[in-house]
Amino acid sequence: MLINKPKKSRHAKLITSSYELYQYEAIDFLKLVPTESIDLVITDPPYESLEKHRAVGTTTRLKNSKASSNTWFKIFPNYLFPELLHEIYRILKKNSHFYLFCDQETAFIIKPEAEDAGFKFWKPLIWDKKKIGMGYHYRARYEFILFFEKGKRKLNNLAIPDILEYPRIHRGYPTEKPAELSETLIQQSSSKNELICDPFMGSCSVGIATIRQNRRFLGADISREAFNISKKRIQSLKS
Ligand SMILES: C[S@@+](CC[C@H](N)C(=O)[O-])C[C@H]1O[C@@H](n2cnc3c(N)ncnc32)[C@H](O)[C@@H]1O
Q1: Which of 70, 143, 197, 217 is the most interior residue, by most CB within 10 Å?
Q2: Which atom of ligand 1 lies at the shortest distance from residue 74's CA?
Q3: Nearest CA, atom 5, ligand 1
């Protein structure tokens, strides 16, 4: 087991030698992860401003979520970010990278808080979804991926640009990210067999990318449905 044994074992889990998935609340889960045991964190929290996009219909796939009995997943409140970022910093090994998906509003909140936790902020990468989406003030075609560093770690390929072009996913999990996008981040910021963590795994796109790239994955999500989708997806990968 890659985490310290939880006191109560009512949480669903799936443990193999190359990945461990848990149904768990992110901060409670990270508290079980040993200090400096993780090589890379890539995560996509359900930040508060997503609710605004949903209210005006500017985010795709927000109305019906296969992953929830209500129509949307639980939002992670902004006031919890300092604790979350502190835990992510603690679990990462000394020279490592951290990527966080978010919109422009949340980027301004996260950047100073992540710096307070100890990270160096490099820049926002742009995920270019290649086709325009909804919106009124210039239609949405990109998302930010905030790129942070703990200590110093060299990117594996210095020729990769800061705009990453991968088509958006249609009819997937709400706000599902293409696994190929995470594969690029993984290739850039980790080596074979290293351990990658996503505490808001959703449909496990980071986990799928991790296994395809021959690394190990540690993932969690608060929702049982997300856990079940992740389990099915990761088990269907050819070994
Ligand atoms: C934006 S989605 C992640 C989508 C994922 N990147 C993908 O490609 O499928 C955020 C996920 O966080 C989960 N979540 C919400 N609050 C949480 C919490 N406090 N702890 C852990 N997971 C949480 C939701 O159930 C949802 O699956």
Answers
A1: 197
A2: 15
A3: 202
Pocket residue to mutate for ligand 1, from 23, 42, 59, 221, most atoms within 8 A of Cβ: 221
Atom of ligand 1 nearest to the CA of 24: 21
The verdict on pTM exceeding 0.90 is yes
Length of the chain: 239
Closest residue (by CA) to atom 24 of ligand 1? Answer: 73
pLDDT cut 70: percent of the chain above it: 91
Give me 110's structure tokens. Answer: 């996260």
β-bridge mates for residue 126, sequence order: 144, 163
- Tell whether ligand 1 has an atom less than 6 A from the beta carbon of residue 205: yes
pLDDT of residue 133: 86
CB 229 within 8 Å of CB 67: yes
Q: How far apart are CA 176 and CA 209, in angstroms?
A: 13
- Ordered mean pLDDT values, 10 residues apiece, the chain (239 residues): 82 95 97 98 94 61 43 85 98 98 96 98 98 86 97 98 96 93 98 98 98 98 96 91
40-191, what's its fold? Rossmann fold (3.40.50)
